[in-house]
Design goal:
mainly alpha
Length: 151
């Protein structure tokens, strides 16, 4: 007898012809030794970490968009010169091109400092707590939710 080990989808749950299946190993292992309150706390910590990952993504967007805007200024300078406004082109060149976004920092430096400081500290603390309380397993809260919702 073969068992369907594909992840459960809406169609596999409702299909009357679906083969008997064995839950696929999600890599989380058993979590019976972790109590519900601890799993919930780890879930909230994981959610907070995921929020910092989203913030990090926005920081990369800020970095790329700001860099792109700076490069677009080159064309604006050329167009201002071609339109007979060299003094305005000089103003853009002098006051905007290559300007630090905060004192002494370009966006890549902000990204690096965020990653090496706050983000590294956050991921390190989360990893140590998860290792100590759940043997390093990730997403225990979600794994339990999956088990409850899929039966």
């Amino acid at each position: 007898m073969t068992h369907d080990v594909r992840p459960k989808t809406a169609s596999s749950r409702t299909s009357p012809d679906a083969s008997p299946r064995v839950e696929a190993d999600t890599g989380t292992g058993t979590d019976t030794e972790v109590d519900d309150a601890t799993a919930e706390a780890l879930g909230k910590l994981s959610e907070a970490l995921e929020t910092t990952e989203r913030a990090r993504g926005h920081l990369y967007s800020f970095h790329q968009l700001t860099g792109h805007a700076d490069l677009q200024l080159d064309e604006a300078v050329e167009l201002l010169r071609a339109a007979g406004h060299p003094e305005m082109a000089d103003m853009v060149t002098r006051e905007l091109i290559g300007l630090d976004v905060i004192p002494d920092r370009w966006t890549f430096q902000i990204v690096e400092e965020y990653e090496d400081g706050y983000h590294a500290a956050f991921t390190g603390v989360e990893r140590r707590i998860r290792k100590q309380l759940a043997g390093g397993r990730r997403h225990l809260h979600e794994a339990r939710m999956k088990k409850r919702r899929q039966g």
